[in-house]
Amino acid sequence: xxxxxxxxxxxxxxxxxxxxxxxxxxxxxxxxxxxxxxxxxxxxxxxxxxxxxxxxxxxxxxxxxxxxxxxxxxxxxxxxxxxxxxxxxxxxxxxxxxxxxxxxxxxxxxxxxxxxxxxxxxxxxxxxxxxxxxxxxxxxxxxxxxxxxxxxxxxxxxxxxxxxxxxxxxxxxxxxxxxxxxxxxxxxxxxxxxxxxxxxxxxxxxxxxxxxxxxxxxxxxxx
Length: 223
Description:
The protein folds into two domains: 8-76, no CATH class; 109-221, Beta-Lactamase (2-Layer Sandwich), CATH 3.30.450.380.
């Protein structure tokens, strides 16, 4: 008989009868062993399901912790630094022009004479000590200091704010005993001549010129 050509009901009947005969001819110990094997398989399947559920739970916890760490990093990370564009300096340096104060005709013969007096100009001290630098120009607050001398006219990396400019003028005023005032101010201290335009509105500007002095000769002023 070919089982493939029989009905489904007959197939079920045949399998049931076959199973009964198999159990009837099998010993009790073998039936018990078979039951234990089936139990072990069921338990193994349950263990696999529990293991998969545990792995899925651990995976979910790891994802949640990763999200928390990303959030904490974003909260603690400093804000991005603003990129300040470099100050553009024109190829041709503008020359600061400060009008010379007019003296009465009776005092026009007076000329500045150098001395050994020195003042502390802080950021400008290296330029004062540099023998190649003859003229120091400050065109206002937050502007690069410009020097003129044997190297030509060049900008420096030195920048003074309003308070620092006012302090330079104040030191010349105190050392020379000449009070400051709005407008054109001029003072001579040691071998330095300061010419300044003092303005509280647009900010003060100044030029410092060095004098070279040789015994027996008149002082040389670099213009």
